[in-house]
Amino acid sequence: xxxxxxxxLAMMGQAPVAPAATPxxxxxxxxxxxxxxxxxxxxxxxxxxxxxxxIEKAFPGPDGVAASxxxxxxxxxxxxxxxxxxxxxxxxxxxxxxxxxxxxxxxAVKKGRSVWSGxxxxxxxxxxxxxxxxxxxxxxxxxxxTLEKKSNILGKALIYNAAKxxxxxxxxxxxxxxxxxxxxxxxxxxxxxxxxxxxxxxxPKPAPVAKPVAKPPATxxxxxxxxxxxxxxxxxxxxxxxxxxxxxxxxxxxxxLEPAKRDGKDVLVxxxx
Length: 273
What we know:
Blueprint: H1 2-11, H2 27-43, H3 45-58, H4 65-96, H5 102-113, H6 124-133, H7 140-162, H8 173-176, E1 243-244, E2 256-262, E3 265-271
Antiparallel strand pairs: 1-3, 2-3
């Protein structure tokens, strides 16, 4: 634990800066602090292992020296895996934040690493003993996973709101009218010929008129009346009630996300616009 390391280094005369032992209270800063402290632990591996090996050989455990020394590479591998979890949470929070927070996160990482300040000049045996018994706070991983889940939900909500289609203004009524058809060309005027002698022609005989044929009466076909289907209208987004984001099954928020308290717990509530 960080407090145990603080006391141990104080006994060596190499106590770190006091504020470094206290991580930030917010999830993002806390996870960044965990990343820095665990990173310092991993970086000290090569420096302390010779002394750790000497101590294990001098004070072998019930399972033997080989079994005891086998745990330290496994602890380093687990620490590196935990740092990947912290990195994913930090990255998700920075992407979902509406304002830049990476500078604050970098300061929290340095604050976590400063837990190991003075390790280079400390007594090798006591530093190895502190390193062998140190572990990060137990809630580092749980808070990192919570931070990543909340950040992913908030990020989806921001993307959803940004992707709403923008209504285009209707086209001008003048533009919607069809273009007028071109006026027909006028045939050139024909010059009148000089009057000539009248020509007498016989009147045409009237064509025979055909007798109308009576059409049979049309038969009426009975048709069944069609019942009108009820029109179901879908409620608009504004008519939907607010709901609490479920971290186990997150859904996109069509409105805005706001932090709130429900039954004494901090939750994210989706409220309509």
